[in-house]
Amino acid sequence: MLEKPAGDLGGKRSQAVSSGPRLQTARIILGAGRGKLLDCAMPLHLIRPLAAPLLAVLLLTASPAWAQRTVALELVLAVDCSSSVDEDEFELQMRGLARAFEHPGVLGALEQTGTKGIAVALMQWSGAGQQAIAIDWQLINSSESALAFSRELDATPRFVSGGATAIGPAIEVAKLMLEQNAYLGERMVIDVSGVGRANEGGPASVPRLKANRAGITVNGLAILKDEPDLAVYYVAGVVGGPGAFLLTADDFNDFARATRRKLYFEISGPPIAALPRHEAPSVAGLSD
Questions:
Q1: What is the full per-residue pLDDT of the chain (288 aa) written as tens digits?
Q2: Pairing between strand 25-30 and 38-43?
Q3: Which domains does the chain have, with CATH numbers?
Q4: What phi, psi does 78 have (nearest 5°)?
Q5: Cβ(23)–Cβ(177) under 8 Å?
Q6: What is the pTM of this model?
Q7: CB distance 3 to 163 below 8 Å
Q8: In this structure, are residues 99 and 256 in contact, taking their beta carbons and an 8 Å threshold?
Q9: How is the chain classified by DSSP, letter by letter?
């Protein structure tokens, strides 16, 4: 199920965030492909029990409804918002992503995509049935649009607050996001950043395989603050597909450095999949 913060549609993150609990309501979009069957705001405590059946309906009724714009890359940034991530750590993730889209190395990689550019969306996730589209699909095809996306990341609040760690369902929802948007990517990538192993929603390897069969690559950024061997788990059961790779961050303070490198390689293409342990090589300036 796709959960969207209540507010305007049209590829922009909701600006209407109440001063009360952040997870009171979400906007639900049910679509036959890229059309709509239902568009309404509902309390999340009513939505979550419906997550699995509604996701099944979406997958069964998918059929394209409008022409798609070709882009070099469709990218879902899937950010861990489970109970393992406190508010300060969430802010470090958002700031790290925002600064990455301002970095000269990332801007240079974007320039190489030419007029096609890339399409990017941000999803926050935790337990099964706890996923929110925090920033809907946006086209980034210039330095100006990249800097605008950076500002949007800076302003993004936390829509998923706490919960279990369900990597598999997050991949399922990200796959659906890639299959039901207005873009046709020459490459499709789900970028999963996480701080722990899955403890809900089943093995991530199953939806990862389904995504791979659909031509979608799953990359990873493992944050090692609680589990020093988390990279081994991600390599074995999370990352996969054409050109897939894994990067690691020692902790959330190291997230920005790792994110810059990750985005550079995701935008530039997959020259690094065969490297030992799925680690990306260094590029001048990206680790500074």
A1: 444 443 333 333 333 333 333 343 443 443 333 323 333 344 444 444 445 445 444 444 444 455 789 999 999 999 999 999 999 999 999 999 999 999 999 999 999 999 999 999 999 999 999 999 999 999 999 999 999 999 999 999 999 999 999 999 999 999 999 999 999 999 999 999 999 999 999 999 999 999 999 999 999 999 999 999 999 999 999 999 999 999 999 998 899 999 999 999 999 986 544 333 344 444 444 555
A2: antiparallel
A3: 68-278 (3.40.50.410)
A4: -105, 110
A5: no
A6: 0.76
A7: no
A8: yes
A9: --EE-SS--SS-------SS-TTSEEEEEE-STTS-SEEEEEEHHHHGGGHHHHHHHHHHH----S--EEESEEEEEEEE-STTS-HHHHHHHHHHHHHHTT-HHHHHHHHTTTTT-EEEEEEEE-STT-EEEEEEEEEE-SHHHHHHHHHHHHT---SS-S----HHHHHHHHHHHHHSSSEEESSEEEEEEESS---SSS-THHHHHHHHHTTEEEEEEEE-SS-TTHHHHHHHHT-BSTT--EEEESSGGGHHHHHHHHHHHHHH--S-TTSGGGPPPP-TTTT-
Rounded Cα gap, residues 161 and 22, in angstroms: 8
Tell me the backbone φ, ψ of residue 59, rounded to 5 degrees.
-65, -35
Asked whether the beta carbons of 84 and 165 are under 8 A apart, the reply is yes
Structure tokens at 105: 């190395």
Question: Which amino acid, one-letter code, is at 116?
Answer: K
